[in-house]
Amino acid sequence: MSDLRSSAWFDGDDEVALAHRVAVRMGGGTIERGERRPVIAIIDTSSDANPCNLPLRDLAEDVRRGVVEAGGTAMVMPAMSLGEDLMKPSAMLYRNLLSIEVEELLRANPIDGVVLLTNCDKTTPGALMGAISADLPTIQIVGGNRPAPIFDGREIGTGTELWRELNRYRSGEIDAGEWRRFEDCYACGLGSCNTAGTASSMAMVVEALGFTLPGASTVQSGDSESHRISYETGMRVVAMVDEKLTPSRLLSMGSFRNAARILQSVGGSTNGVIHLAAIAGRAGFEFAPSAVAAAGHSIPVIADVQPCGSMLMRDLDRAGGVPALVFELGDLIESEPGSCTGRSFADSARAPLADNERTRVVRAISDPVVDGPAIRAVSGSLAPGSAVLKAAASSPALWRHRGPALVFHSYEEMRRRTQDPELDVTADHVLVLTGCGPVGVPGMPEWGMIPIPLKLLEEGVTDMVRISDARMSGTSFGTVFLHVSPEGAVGGPISLVRDGDMIAVDVEAGTLDLEVVAEELDRRRLEWSPPQTQHLRGWPLLYQRHVEQADRGADLDFLTAPTPAHRERVEPVVGRS
Ligand code: FES
Predict the structure, then answer these.
(1) Which of 2, 43, 274, 409 lies at a C-alpha separation of 20 to 30 Å from 11?
(2) Which atom of ligand 1 lies at the shortest distance from residue 199's CA?
(3) Minimum-distance ligand 1 atom for the alpha carbon of 51
(4) Residue 192 CB–ligand 1 contact under 6 Å
């Protein structure tokens, strides 16, 4: 194989090239003098602190076998693991840091191609963003979704069922003993959330962008299929190096439109909207929330998977996964965008498998699970940038609503006051949480599914309009307008809302308005001052200074690739002194 990036390290007879070759040999690889053997990085984000990513530990060696079999040499490189459950204030604060780590690992080392091993929500977009910025041939493997526990005879979907049980516990429908029994049952094994939450949504988005082998994004953790996929991925990435199939050659605007269509067809996570914007930004494209909504305009939810449907990711996988969705979407998937296979993504279409006849988890477009697009974008005087709604998991009766605001300025205030039985609130109120966007907190935590106030929960209210500059879990539901931009912490209109202000939403019209006269808003704006940051050093300080708003993907302003020139591959500088 000629023209390898790693040759800059290994070619030659001097002491520097010698030391480089020896270092590879000491690490278990092989680069002989004069040999052109592609070096493949296997970026491993497994960690004991992240059970979602632990299945990846078993896959790295399968990838290595594939790489070696295809004539390459492999280096397993650990990278930070972003576990959604344990990292505070939010794993999202560290997505961009993982992307920097991946990009710099690839830039600094003699790497020709990369396999990304990821799973939990932020690891998948974060690692891919870094690899796109490095612009080396890239394939991604996910660790798979976890098995479903059985609770009182029913299968438990991660997240979705937790929020339902929580509401039952808060309203007194179940007691502390039942709540405890649920906890014991909920610890059900390794892998990602088994619903179409953010992790599975992003895995499918990555497949649609062309960065996994066909069908690889929905596999179950521990399934022998994941070993085959890993081995074949290792083989394929070596060929990609020969074909110079880099992300900049793979990606086009059509790739992002296809990814948005797959996201919409599974009723996927609203977090996918932010990550798509950020991934696109690394490749030099703009893909705003309105573009996700527009691409998915005629795509109903055709995968009957929680939280919009009733089944689990395992069922979607058995029915054929993403290739079956591509088959059903037919001409709605653009045929030009490529994939890591060297063929177009649309070529991966495959009729749903026999299991689908029993489960009907993959539906025809004419017989959808939910009619209309899953994710909608709105904008208006309350959200001049945009806000998004998981329409497919909300209440259509609330899509056109006008009500008085009840504002919370922090997570603690929101938790405390929604539990207050004396809270002055009705079901017509619009609950607002501000100060929790990318700069606020910082890191835009998943606090946007504001709890229904206890008083209303006890009256039987199950949904109401809620608005926030935060995110919410991909497994959540409700009429919740998220990612309001600009956010409160930078002085967006959401920071100016006062209790009792009238707010009007109209999902069909795409509007979200604060009905306060301009003079009054100007007066409030003069009184407003930015919240004091508690972060005076380190990563949070850097993040707060440079993070962009949600509608631009919440990437750091110096990491995006605004011009094609930024995407040109930077040749390594290998010291010879
Ligand atoms: Fe890690 Fe859901 S918490 S995948």
Answers:
(1) 43
(2) 4
(3) 1
(4) yes
Beta-strand pair 113-118/430-433: unpaired
The response to whether residue 120 sits with its C-beta less than 6 Å from ligand 1 reads yes
Task: Tell the residue number behind the tokens 């040759």, with chain if given.
Answer: 7
CA atoms within 13 A on the CB side of 48: 0
Closest ligand 1 atom number to CA of residue 193:
2
Supply φ then ψ for residue 486, to 5 degrees: -65, 155
| Domain regions of the chain by residue span | 38-147+189-359, 150-186, 379-527
**What ligand 1 atom has the least distance to the C-alpha of 83?**
1
Of 255, 252, 190, 251, which is closest to residue 223 (Cα–Cα)?
190
Q: How far is the CA of 198 from the centre of ligand 1 (A)?
A: 8
Spacing, Cα 121 to ligand 1 middle (Å):
6
Q: Is the CB of 203 under 6 A from ligand 1?
A: no
Determine whether the shortest distance from the Cβ of 121 to ligand 1 is under 6 A: yes
* Residue pair 41/75 in contact by the 8 Å Cβ criterion: yes
In the block, residue with structure tokens 């309001």: 484
Q: 241, 279, 283, 276: which is closest to 138 by C-alpha?
A: 241
3-class state of residue 500 by DSSP: coil
CA atoms within 13 A on the CB side of 238: 22
Q: Are strands 511-515 and 502-506 parallel, antiparallel or unpaired?
A: antiparallel
Model pTM greater than 0.70?
A: yes
Atom of ligand 1 nearest to the CA of 200: 4
Residue whose CA is closest, atom 2 of ligand 1?
193
- Max Cα-Cα span within the chain: 80
Cα 242 to Cα 112: distance, rounded to the nearest angstrom? 10
Q: Which CATH superfamily is domain 379-527 in?
A: IlvD/EDD C-terminal domain-like (3.50.30.80)
Q: How far is it, in rounded angstroms, from Cα 370 to Cα 276? A: 23
Of all atoms in ligand 1, which is nearest to the CA of residue 84? 3
Ligand 1 centre and the CA of 196: distance in Å? Answer: 11
Rounded distance, CA 434 to CA 1, Å?
Answer: 55
**Cα 43 to averaged position of ligand 1 atoms, centre (Å):** 19
Query: Residue 84: CB within 6 Å of ligand 1?
Result: yes
Average pLDDT by stretches of 10, the chain with 577 residues = 89 95 94 93 97 95 98 97 95 98 97 98 98 97 92 85 86 90 84 95 98 98 95 98 96 97 97 98 95 95 94 96 98 97 98 91 96 96 98 96 98 96 97 97 95 94 97 91 98 98 98 98 96 90 97 96 54 51
SS3 assignment, position 231: helix
CA-atom Rg of the chain in angstroms: 24
Residue for token pair 């994939």:
339
At 471, list the tokens: 């995110």
Cα–Cα distance measured from residue 35 to residue 563, given in angstroms and rounded to the nearest whole number: 36
Closest protein CA for atom 1 of ligand 1: 120
